[in-house]
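Let's practice the habit of predicting before peeking. Look at the sequence and jot down your guess about where helices and strands might fall. Then scroll down.
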Amino acid sequence: MYDFIHGGDSDAARLGLRVGAWIDRGLQCSGIVLISITMVALGKLQQHRASEHDLRLQVVLSWADAYPEQKPLADRFVQDCLPLAQQGLFDPSDSLALRACALSMSAGTLLYAVQQADSTLATPAWPLSLMWNRL
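Done guessing? Here is the structure:
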């Protein structure tokens, strides 16, 4: 057992070196996999947030086309409220900030349209879906 741990010329020492190399290789591979999954998850998160922003912008533009007399309100909403919802990556208060901003400018119907569009977004793909409900 001593040779297995501390080395030497015996079969136990050679086996200890092989086991140590396997453990080292396994830790390296695990680290690479963990870093890769983290990078993919962060990329998916950013992609989901960009899709959410694009969808909201499209809904506001469609709403402005449907109500041309409210176009200045829609422009103010895009300028003042949409950036509030994009400040943090997973800020749970972003929808509250968006709601407060919309209600402060009396854009309740526009807010409702944006919330309806938000509800159509699917849960992100793996691996982000693993932690989506925990955010």
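How did you do? The longest helix spans residues 11-66.
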